[in-house]
UniProtKB/TrEMBL annotation:
The lineage of its organism: Bacteria, Pseudomonadati, Pseudomonadota, Gammaproteobacteria, Vibrionales. CDD domains: HAD_BPGM-like. This is Putative enzyme. InterPro entries: HAD-like_sf, HAD-SF_hydro_IA, HAD_sf, PGP-like_dom2. NCBIfam families: HAD-SF-IA-v1, HAD-SF-IA-v3, PRK10826.1.
Amino acid sequence: MQKNAAIFDMDGVLIDSEPYWRQAQVDVLAGFGVTATAEDCIRLTMGRRLDDIAKIWCQHFSLDIPSEELQVSIMQAVVALIRQHGEPKLGVVSLLQTLQGAGVKIALATSSSRPIIEAVLDTLNIRKYFTVVCSADNEEYGKPHPSVYLTAAQKLDVAANQCVVIEDSVTGMIAGLAAGMTTFAVPDSIDDPRFAVANGTFSSLVDLEYHLKKTGEIMESMAR
């Protein structure tokens, strides 16, 4: 069945921002006198919404500060790193151009907060491709709850079963599947058995674009 819309996650899909997220958390937490490692970030907070990340660290380290304070500090650090170092992942611009050229509606549905979204769209110069931009910050629940994907589909005016989700994390994959959408994973490790439940797993967006062109699953959706 051909699809009418593509909904992208942002961190880890459009930009390799996970190192920036990890560095920001490690640096900010060090400023509060506690030590977290990159491995701790991967294990405890990867793919989570920023407010959840701050709450997790406050609880994990029993920090005597409002989680909102930690949240703001991490956000500012991430934005600074993205604006200084951010680059699109391999295949991002080509896939977005191909989808847009085929008349496919494109949305962004991310766990990141609005300032981080703005930093990514501006730094990568890809804002023009997205009809809809949704942040899980505006939802009652973050991923793996499907609400941010359902909101994106609603704003695109496309049924959930006519949407393709592109994710890199297990949490996001679960959200896409729970929304009733075809969900493709482009993870750091395609050998991770947890991604077996995705509708397809690819090593890069280049491989995903090749698959979509070959199968016609989405590329010809608006040509009929």
